[in-house]
Automatic annotation (TrEMBL):
<dbReference type="InterPro" id="IPR005849">
    <property type="entry name" value="GalP_Utransf_N"/>
</dbReference>
<keyword id="KW-0808">Transferase</keyword>
<keyword id="KW-0862">Zinc</keyword>
<dbReference type="InterPro" id="IPR005850">
    <property type="entry name" value="GalP_Utransf_C"/>
</dbReference>
<dbReference type="InterPro" id="IPR019779">
    <property type="entry name" value="GalP_UDPtransf1_His-AS"/>
</dbReference>
<dbReference type="Pfam" id="PF02744">
    <property type="entry name" value="GalP_UDP_tr_C"/>
</dbReference>
<dbReference type="InterPro" id="IPR001937">
    <property type="entry name" value="GalP_UDPtransf1"/>
</dbReference>
<protein>
    <recommendedName>
        <fullName>Galactose-1-phosphate uridylyltransferase</fullName>
        <ecNumber>2.7.7.12</ecNumber>
    </recommendedName>
</protein>
<comment type="pathway">
    <text>Carbohydrate metabolism; galactose metabolism.</text>
</comment>
<feature type="domain" description="Galactose-1-phosphate uridyl transferase C-terminal">
    <location>
        <begin position="267"/>
        <end position="397"/>
    </location>
</feature>
<feature type="domain" description="Galactose-1-phosphate uridyl transferase N-terminal">
    <location>
        <begin position="161"/>
        <end position="240"/>
    </location>
</feature>
<dbReference type="GO" id="GO:0016779">
    <property type="term" value="F:nucleotidyltransferase activity"/>
</dbReference>
<keyword id="KW-0299">Galactose metabolism</keyword>
<keyword id="KW-0479">Metal-binding</keyword>
<dbReference type="Pfam" id="PF01087">
    <property type="entry name" value="GalP_UDP_transf"/>
</dbReference>
<keyword id="KW-0548">Nucleotidyltransferase</keyword>
<comment type="similarity">
    <text>Belongs to the galactose-1-phosphate uridylyltransferase type 1 family.</text>
</comment>
Length: 406
């Protein structure tokens, strides 16, 4: 097993300069999974990266998804995920740089690293002809036996329908630190992560069979987080997710300018939390969760890959201020899901606007909102806190974040 020390087992991966001076370096893990290093501008790291010399088992076969005929939803049955790490000690952190005693997933020291998930919900196989081997050098486990044959195929009726869960799941490591979250990053590191999100959104959107790309961060054990290491994930789905399908129906009902009108409506009210030249954060009019904030760009962009350098530059400190304000509500860190909703790859690009939906079940310092009968079984939500009250508390909390920390 190699170490993160640069030496005879080190190489200089192919490099590409992205926006804001971020440098992307491409490598492979021992089982063939892709690994990408995103170096901060002015990084102290050299160009070389240690080679992953672990002896790894073959990758699991791509999962199978089944269609729920009552809802039309596709459910991926990914049994390999049962084996994923669960709250390991810091010395066995699987997202830290490798050491002689910790054969982790990332061979070298890094600023930001992205790699294919070892136990994915979708992939590693991609769409192709039934029975076609799609794994290249990664092994026969990647054979796609019956992949989706387009969105019309996925929408077709019938009992007992199955398809291979083609696609891609990636892990985004925000920092080599053992604990933290996006909100604990420096503005420079936050900007590097945003550049990585945009780069991976573009790359994953180009993969065969991918219909939607979803970057997100789960934070806190109350949410179900099993690794305290600061990280997020990116899912590349082989279908349009149920929430986005509902959104497309809403746009058809309300009109193609729906997001522009929502932004104007919210910016004219007292639920705005903070606003810049390019972005506004607000508690939505019909917020479901005790803490719910949407962050939206002022112009129409379909996904993070379409944002400009100026928009990404402003997003880094503004998003940090929002997250640190949410943490300032209580004496302990607030659990949340930070979900970047992006337009599907092939539909709604001119009507579905990129936006962040940040939600937390925390309704008091020592209380959580649990989804019980009405919400979980019927999808009929009951809000515990008026959105205007939540917005006022969040504005005060955000205002308490010192400027010099950003």
């Amino acid at each position: 097993m190699n170490t993160p020390e640069f030496g005879s087992d080190a190489a200089a991966p192919s490099a590409q300069t992205l926006g804001a001076g971020v440098v992307k370096r491409t490598a492979r893990l021992a089982d063939g999974r892709e690994l990408f290093y995103y170096d901060d501008p002015g990084t102290a790291l050299g160009p070389e990266r240690a080679v992953d010399a672990r002896d790894l088992a073959p990758r699991p076969a791509t999962a199978t998804m089944r269609r729920d005929v009552l809802t039309g939803d596709w459910v991926s049955i990914a049994a390999a995920r049962q084996n994923r790490a669960f709250l390991p000690p810091a010395e066995l952190d699987p997202l830290a740089p490798q050491t002689p005693t910790n054969p982790s997933e990332i061979p070298s020291m890094y600023d930001v690293a992205v790699f294919e998930n070892k136990s994915p919900s979708f992939g590693p196989a991609l769409a192709g002809a039934p029975g076609e081997h799609l794994g290249g050098t990664l092994g026969e486990a990647l054979v796609s036996t019956d992949p989706p044959r387009g969105l019309d195929d996925l929408d077709a009726p019938g009992l007992g329908r199955t398809r291979t869960s083609v696609g891609r799941c990636e892990v985004v490591c925000f920092s080599p630190a053992h604990s933290g979250s996006f909100g604990s990053l420096t503005p420079t590191r936050a900007r590097t992560v945003i550049e990585a999100w945009a780069d991976r959104t573009a790359a994953l959107s180009a993969l065969p069979g991918v219909e939607q790309v979803f970057p997100f961060e789960n934070r806190g054990e109350a949410i179900g987080v099993t690794l305290p290491h600061p990280h997020g994930q990116i899912y590349a789905y082989p279908y349009i997710t149920p929430r986005t399908a509902t959104l497309l129906g809403s746009i058809e009902r309300e009109g193609p300018d729906l997001f522009a009108r929502i932004l104007d409506f919210e910016r004219a009210d007292d639920r705005v939390i903070l606003s810049g030249e390019h972005w506004t954060a607000f508690v939505p009019f019909a917020a479901r969760w005790p803490i719910e904030v949407h962050l939206m760009p002022h112009r129409h962009v379909a996904d993070l890959a379409e944002t400009t350098a100026a928009e990404r530059d402003e997003l880094a400190p503004l998003y940090l201020r929002l997250l640190r304000g949410i943490d300032a509500l209580y004496d302990s860190p607030t659990p949340y899901i930070a979900a970047w909703h992006q337009a599907p790859v092939h539909r709604g690009r001119d009507t579905v606007r990129l936006h962040l939906q940040l939600t937390s079940p925390r309704r008091a310092a020592d209380k959580l909102k649990f989804l019980a009968g009405s919400e979980a079984a019927m999808g009929a939500w009951i809000g515990d806190i008026p959105p205007e009250t939540s917005a006022a508390r969040l504005r005060d909390a955000v205002a308490s974040v010192p400027e010099e920390t950003l």
